[in-house]
Structure formats: C-alpha cells, structure tokens
C-alpha cells in the first residue's frame, strides 16, 4: 500500500546490491511513496550489474562511490543535488563489510589491516558521508539520515566478530553527529537495529542459519524481514517522525527485550531428555 509519504522528497540510497538487500527493498518503497533518489554503491559492486534493474524500475540515476573515499562522496553528493534538482531530504546508509568475517578469521586472531578496512567501510563511512553532507549544506531542514545496525553492538554474538565493534562505533557516530546535525541544520540522525536478515552480508556471518532460527523463536512477533525494514525506514524519512533523533531503534519483533521465550525453553528442555 502507498501513502504518498515521501512525495517531493529527494535522497541518496547506499547499498543496494541485489534483490535481497535491505537498501533494494527500501528503494522500491521510497519510489512507491513518491520519493526520488540517486542510487549508489561501491564501483566493484556495480560490476555485478543488478543495480541497473533497480535504477530502471525506480527511474533513478546511479552514481558509483566507494563510501570510504571522501572524494567519491563529494562527487556523489554534488551529483545527487544536481540530478534531483535541489537539496536532499533523506539518506540511507546500508553498508557493512568485514574481511575478518569473510575470510573466517576468528575474533581472537584478527588481521588488523582487515579490521581497519572493515571499520572504515562499516562505520567511519557513515561519519564521512555526514561530514560531506554537513559541510556542503546538502540536507534540507527536517531531513532524515538513517543507518542500519545490529544488536551485537550491545550484546555478545560471538560469530559476528569485529562487525560488533563496527556497529557500536556506527551507533555512536549517529548520536555524536546527530547532535550537530540537529542543532545546526534541523536534520535527524538515527540507526535501525534490524533482525538477522537473509542477504549477502547477513549470510556471510558464520552460523547464520542457527542465528536467524534462534532469533525467530525468541521474538514474540518473529524476525522482521527486509521488506518490513523498508516499511519502517520510510516512516523515518517521512514528516511523521520529525522529532525522533539520536536514537538506536530496534526493529526486531521484540527480540532485544526478551530474556527467554517458551519456544526456546522447550527446545532446550527437549534436548536434555
Ligand atoms: N542482513 C542482516 O542480518 C542485517 C541485520 C542487521 C543489520 N544489517 C545491516 O544492514 C545493512 C545492509 O546490509 P544487507 O543485509 O542489506 O546486505 P547487502 O550485502 O545486500 O548490503 C551491504 C552493502 O554494502 C555495500 N558496500 C560494501 N563496501 C562498500 C563500500 N566500500 N562503499 C559502498 N558500499 C559498500 C555492498 O556493496 C552492499 O551493497 C548493513 O549495514 C548490515 O550490517 C544487516
């Protein structure tokens, strides 16, 4: 269903890799709600080609940018403002990557060059993006910036590896930069802490199948899907949430406030028999 929530709003959407990506679903929903945007991803991800389909479907231009490069981000922001015909109302940061995770390197045996690269891609890129937007005064008043995160920033999930630290850093950047963006430009900055979701990034985490099944059984409403995350995100881009800022918002079917569920208890008790 469409509510015209984003009619006339302009933005940038980072991180649509394929149809499973949270950013992909969000781009489709923003389009349905009347928003216009530029799609962006790392040049290397572009080569896989499927983002072109999304661009066609939503009538969007693609501007490649490595989110760790301030130079690329400056070109992206200037290009988006020009292409869309004015300052921006929303930005989605939907980017994550850990080489330690990808190469199966244990948390207690990090390759720190990889750790640094992962931090730059997954967290510092959010600061860089906001700094470019802020310095170039590229956001309209009452605009909204959202990044995606995971609860491993607060609680231990052993196989999430260094991504847990990257997410803690990302959430802190949202608060710290969000203060200045709010005070100086009336722009809000939030993170959405999403359930485990079967995407390329999600499935890269060791033991993902167990992880997602456990979360499903623990959450009174079940896991939130990528589609539901897109629905939630458009509310944060809309004018209906103007005073929500500096928040880490759990979108997880209730998982984050659970101790144990009956279903998980039953599975455990059955195992003991
Ligand atoms: N899938 C999950 O279980 C889950 C749960 C909570 C939060 N998240 C977060 O959601 C966000 C989106 O991930 P997803 O699950 O849709 O997976 P995804 O793999 O579809 O998206 C990750 C994106 O990051 C992009 N990226 C990587 N390096 C980049 C760089 N240098 N510059 C620009 N883009 C770069 C990739 O090309 C890809 O499009 C991530 O922040 C992820 O951590 C995912």
UniProtKB/TrEMBL annotation:
UniProt family annotation: Belongs to the short-chain dehydrogenases/reductases (SDR) family. FabI subfamily.
Broad enzyme group: oxidoreductase
Positions that bind NAD(+): 15, 21-22, 95, 167
Organism per entry: Leeuwenhoekiella aequorea
InterPro entries per UniProt: Enoyl-ACP_Rdtase_NADH (IPR014358), NAD(P)-bd_dom_sf (IPR036291), SDR_fam (IPR002347)
Catalytic activity: a 2,3-saturated acyl-[ACP] + NAD(+) = a (2E)-enoyl-[ACP] + NADH + H(+)
Any single Pfam family the record assigns to this protein: adh_short_C2
PANTHER family: ENOYL-[ACYL-CARRIER-PROTEIN] REDUCTASE, ENOYL-[ACYL-CARRIER-PROTEIN] REDUCTASE [NADH], CHLOROPLASTIC
Pathway(s) served: Lipid metabolism; fatty acid biosynthesis
One of the GO biological process terms: fatty acid biosynthetic process
Name assigned to this protein: Enoyl-[acyl-carrier-protein] reductase [NADH]
Source domain of life: Bacteria
Keywords (A to Z) from UniProt: Fatty acid biosynthesis, Fatty acid metabolism, Lipid biosynthesis, Lipid metabolism, NAD, Oxidoreductase
Enzyme Commission numbers on file: 1.3.1.9
GO molecular function, one term: enoyl-[acyl-carrier-protein] reductase (NADH) activity
Active site per UniProt: 150, 160
Keyword set includes S-adenosyl-L-methionine: no
């Amino acid at each position: 269903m469409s509510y015209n929530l984003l009619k006339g709003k302009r933005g940038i959407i980072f991180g649509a890799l394929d149809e499973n990506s949270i950013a992909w679903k969000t781009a489709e929903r923003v389009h349905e709600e009347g928003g216009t945007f530029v799609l962006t991803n790392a040049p290397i991800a572009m080569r896989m080609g499927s983002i072109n389909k999304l661009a066609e479907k939503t009538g969007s231009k693609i501007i490649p940018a490595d989110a760790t490069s301030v130079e690329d981000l400056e070109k992206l922001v200037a290009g988006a403002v020009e292409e869309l015909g004015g300052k921006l109302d929303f930005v989605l940061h939907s980017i994550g990557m850990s080489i330690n995770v990808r190469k199966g390197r244990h948390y207690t045996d990090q390759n720190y060059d990889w750790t640094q690269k992962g931090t730059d891609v997954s967290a510092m890129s959010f600061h860089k993006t906001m700094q470019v937007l802020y310095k170039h005064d590229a956001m309209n008043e009452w605009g909204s910036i959202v990044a995606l995160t995971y609860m491993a920033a607060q609680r231990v999930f052993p196989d999430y590896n260094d991504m847990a630290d990257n997410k803690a850093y990302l959430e802190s950047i949202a608060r710290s930069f969000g203060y200045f963006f709010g005070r100086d430009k009336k722009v809000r900055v939030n993170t959405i802490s999403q359930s485990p979701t079967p995407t390329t990034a999600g499935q890269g985490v060791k033991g993902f199948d167990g992880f997602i099944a456990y979360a499903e059984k623990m959450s009174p409403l079940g896991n939130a899907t990528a589609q539901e995350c897109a629905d939630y995100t458009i509310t944060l881009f809309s004018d209906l949430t103007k005073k929500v800022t500096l928040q880490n918002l759990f979108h997880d079917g209730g998982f984050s406030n659970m101790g144990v569920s009956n279903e998980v208890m039953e599975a455990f008790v059955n195992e003991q028999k």
